[in-house]
Amino acid sequence: DAAEKQGYEHFMLKEIHEQPRAVADTLLGRLDADGRVTLDRLDFDPALLRALDKVYIVACGTSHHAGMVAKYATEHWAKIGVEAEIASEFRYRDPILTKQTLVVAISQSGETADTIAAAEYARAQGARVIAVTNIVGSTLARTADGVIFTRAGLEVAVASTKAFTTQIIALSVLALFLAQERRQMFAEECRDMLDRLEALPALMERVLEAEEGMAELAARFSGADYFMFIGRQVGLPIALEGALKLKEISYIHAEGFASGEMKHGPIALIDDGGPVIALATDGHVKAKVVSNIQEVKARGAVVLAVATEGDTEVKEHADHVVYVPDVHELLYPVLTVLPLQLLGYHIAVALDRDVDQPRNLAKTVTVE
Ligand code: AGP
């Protein structure tokens, strides 16, 4: 056990630090000899993707949050409507599925019962299914019409970390593939975006150097009994993921909100000293998040913001700021989630929780 942890106290911390390497592996060989983006397997004519009417992304838990992140890039690059859905809800309504519908099923294990059932349901209605999974021989990988592997390596901790960031990367490759096949992006544009993805591992290393600071903040915040995470656009799924990470391993109640929704209810929860974690990196929604930070500050919240290196505005309003390098707006999630994983981890350690095996949870949920 100790040897497997390679000097780390927990598998979760080891896996957090493995992310730059894992993301680099996800990206290996994604261009074919003709310079075109490729998946690991596709059993149907990619020309069919030109006539798509809709994309549904189905997944559970952290994988669902990766799907939410992918919605933005897929709509923006491939110019197709995308809904990111919780797999356990998908087949209990009447989703409109045709032969022109693409369903992307994301599952680290490839064995999550609800995700497999959602994919099967979609296939039975004639839709095509592409799997995004970490496990080559998994049920999902074997039954889908196409697959892209995340190549994250074995993830032992129940709390998913490297599976999440590699899913976002694999889904970005898939979005570029769709953009290419649908002729919405030129080959050079796809390659430029792949270059930007390939630059991420080195930037992730830099963010992970902030661990000590996150451990100090965790010690400060570990007495709180409620955390709020707020974000907009790609910051929203990261707010949801930060809250999920914290609650599953520390057992502290945490919730993520679209920051624009605060005034419609959640802001009533704010009282003196309550921690609010805000995703406030550069982009077209930053000014709005900054104004949301001011609103919660005015009501007594203590704000920890995640902002872009070089930013001077966010620190005027937040109590603590952790910085991530400047990247394309749609690529921030793989950087901004890192300090939130570290925060959750160090709070759980400070509270002496069973970090790798949290109560009531299984690594893979194979029953409904
Ligand atoms: C996250 O930390 C989880 N433990 C959980 O939400 C997980 O992501 C979910 O159960 C989905 O698993 P899968 O990716 O193997 O399908």
Automatic annotation (TrEMBL):
Compartments in which it is found: Cytoplasm
Domain (SIS) ranges: 44-184, 217-358
Keywords: Aminotransferase, Cytoplasm, Glutamine amidotransferase, Repeat, Transferase
The organism's place on the tree of life at top rank: Bacteria
The protein's role, per its UniProt record: Catalyzes the first step in hexosamine metabolism, converting fructose-6P into glucosamine-6P using glutamine as a nitrogen source.
Catalytic activities: D-fructose 6-phosphate + L-glutamine = D-glucosamine 6-phosphate + L-glutamate
Self-association and partners: Homodimer.
Primary location: cytoplasm
Coiled-coil portions: none
Protein name listed in UniProt: Glutamine--fructose-6-phosphate aminotransferase [isomerizing]
Molecular-function annotations in GO: carbohydrate derivative binding; glutamine-fructose-6-phosphate transaminase (isomerizing) activity
Top EC group: transferase
One annotated Gene Ontology cellular component of this protein: cytosol
Keyword 4Fe-4S found: no
Gene for this chain: glmS
GO annotation terms (biological process): amino sugar biosynthetic process; carbohydrate metabolic process; fructose 6-phosphate metabolic process; protein N-linked glycosylation; UDP-N-acetylglucosamine metabolic process
Source organism: Euzebya pacifica
UniProt-annotated catalytic positions: K363 (for fru-6p isomerization activity)
The enzyme's E.C. designation: 2.6.1.16
